[in-house]
Design the sequence.
């Protein structure tokens, strides 16, 4: 799936359109080449504008608004999906946190609130043959946030959301656990929830890391392109392509038949 996502990434599409335009220009088809250049510019401009990127992200996040801790049910485990913490490798002397690290913070908060006695974190070894896995890095952050080490399970074998679901199912089956709170970014939750349901794991959505806010940043100009907006659009494309691919290969539950556990 990684190759497919990269293939339809907005920046990749832009480069493909530019290459096509250059080929058309080289073969004397100037009118078609001009159309290609204009299309590449319009495509990039739109997806790199905060207004468009925000609208695209909201189409995913609006389905899973923030939920107060006390509104979530008690469960047997808290599942925190990887993606927010990268392991410490030289020259880092500590794990690297990105915007999705909200997942780890929310997982620790849920544990402190007594929502479940066990926290399961996922994440592969990001750097070949170097350092701990992302799951182990998340476990270290959880311990710093006050979660006891014996309350954390950190299988570091997952490579994608579908693998996360299978590994979590194995852990829960081995320990005789029935239900879990699923913690991941709101933008990722639609695909993650469907995938866990397809794998037969009973989960309640506990979304966090909402990228879209009700208040616009003071320095943001809605129609002026920015690298931040282009990155956000790329994340949205990743999720929509991922959802389509997961349904194609049977890793995702059909929403018309599946309901939240």
Sequence:
């Amino acid at each position: 799936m990684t190759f497919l996502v990269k293939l339809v990434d907005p920046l990749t599409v832009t480069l493909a359109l530019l290459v096509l335009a250059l080929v058309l220009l080289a073969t004397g088809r100037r009118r078609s080449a001009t159309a290609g250049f204009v299309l590449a510019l319009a495509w990039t401009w739109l997806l790199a504008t905060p207004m468009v990127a925000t609208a695209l992200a909201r189409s995913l996040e609006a389905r899973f608004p923030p939920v107060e801790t006390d509104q979530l049910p008690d469960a047997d485990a808290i599942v925190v999906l990887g993606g927010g913490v990268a392991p410490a490798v030289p020259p880092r002397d500590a794990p690297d946190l990105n915007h999705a690290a909200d997942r780890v913070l929310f997982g620790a908060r849920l544990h402190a609130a007594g929502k479940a006695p066990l926290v399961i974190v996922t994440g592969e070894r990001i750097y070949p043959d170097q350092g701990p896995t992302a799951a182990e890095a998340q476990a270290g952050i959880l311990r710093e946030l006050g979660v006891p080490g014996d309350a954390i399970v950190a299988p570091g074998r997952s490579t994608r959301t579908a693998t996360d679901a299978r590994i979590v199912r194995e852990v829960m089956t081995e320990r005789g656990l029935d239900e879990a709170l699923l913690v991941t970014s709101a933008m990722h939750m639609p695909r993650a929830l469907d995938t866990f349901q397809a794998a037969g794991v009973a989960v309640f959505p506990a979304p966090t890391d909402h990228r879209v806010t009700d208040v616009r940043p003071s320095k943001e100009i809605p129609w002026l392109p920015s690298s931040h907006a282009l990155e956000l659009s790329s994340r949205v494309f990743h999720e929509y392509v991922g959802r389509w691919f997961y349904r194609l290969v049977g890793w995702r539950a059909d929403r018309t038949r599946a309901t939240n556990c």
